[in-house]
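Appendix B. One record, verbatim.
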Amino acid sequence: MSIKGLSIAGRKSNDGIDYYQTPEWATIELLKKEKFEGSILEPCSGGGAISKVLEQYGYNVISSDIRDDIHVYGTKKQNMFDLQGFQANNIITNPPYFCAEDAIKKSLELTDKKVAMIFKLQFLESQKRYELFKSTPLKKVYVFCKRVVMWNELLQPDDGTRSKHGGTIAFAWYVWEHGYEGKPTIDWIL
């Protein structure tokens, strides 16, 4: 699958595609709901929006991104799909949407505690994902009551005037926990 030079096997872009940073407040809200023990890998770190919040909260964070431009926070040119024999306790990330299912599966392979990813709420839809959710330890879905606005920082730098809330897309944090066997539950982020 390719999108303007991006591919699942070797996603790489300097034109800003799939460079949507998670607002700081959205990561803070996840941390109010979930505690993470041990190391955290952020394999789609971009400019470090999620990683920097995790570090501020005292977590041991390993940041990397497949991209290699000057905006990358952490290790450059590291494709999470190429990681073999690597183990982190947790992954917290905002992966490219076009490879979300593969990112979930790979993240569960790379961890032994939790995986948290932010996706559109509509990610819950589809028969294909229903099978994915049934076969993985999805424990919680935290739905944002306020709309999260994701901005492409390279194409639309923050000039200080843009809204922090009020977007048109509903987002949620999805949290998988190794060993969890029940049905997922829903909670809300106010």
